[in-house]
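Hi U.,

Before I forget, here's the chain from the pilot set. I'm dumping it here mostly so it's searchable later in email.
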Amino acid sequence: MRVIEIEGGKGPAEALRLAERPMPTPAPGEIRIRLRAAGVNRPDIVQRLGLYPAPPGASDILGLEVAGEVDALGDGVTRWNLGDRVCALLGGGGYADYAVVDARHALPVPAGLDFVQAAALPETAFTVFANVFEGGGLKAGETLLIHGATSGIGVMAIQMAKAAGARVIATSRGAAKAKAAYELGADVSLDAVTTDLAVAIKAEGGADVVLDMVGAAYAELNLNALKPGGRWVVIATLTGALAQIDLMRIMLKRIVLTGSTLRSRSGDEKARLAAAVEQTVWPWVADGAVRARVEATFSLDQAAAAHQRLEAGDHVGKIVLTL
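Structure:
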């Protein structure tokens, strides 16, 4: 089967090369998927640079979310049948013609979605649900502040928060992105380039939950933006992981600071999360309240160009590889 490998083990986008490997065989409890599309995510870039190795037991091939048809069943798999249309969360292996995955980490492709749209769902939907709703405890009537609101995660967070009855304040860089976030459903959309975010967020009453993909540079901003009892959820640190925080203000405002990664979770934990996402988020997808916005698609052999597009940072939504 065709796969994308990283020439030299790590490097720039140009290091991504088309290669061939034997087709994987599903172990007990796994399914093999004939892939039709695979999402491209920032963790793929970090892994390509040699900074985010695959967890033990996972494929070294890039790709954390896919969609396609069930092609083979491992022993003990009862939910799925050959030919079923599924999307799935992977520990790795998505940039290929076929991939194996724990059968519990796959979900049915929602009615009305094609494979490209479905492949853009798992990584973002699982991440937002785990962090905004479980870690952040967002409830109807509360306000969610999203930094990086036009990223794949940000776009999904806007829609899921609105579907849950929350209010959304979005920040992004540039007037075009601010406009896009507003059109996606944000109640307030702020251009971080031209706006004093601290003043603007305060004028909007602050936030109950912050979804932070920026990191160190926004630490003080987030501390000021949160209401008493607020929850600050960190899922990426694009401006650095080390920040100086006034712990007394954390105490006085009763702020919960938390965060998580998805890939390193156990198979059982991912299975639990998949079931929760299917129960809560999939109905929102079915009724059209939540959709993955796909900015661009590239064929598998154009994986380098897909990474360059993601790294450029001018996209709104997801980048997807097609097979």
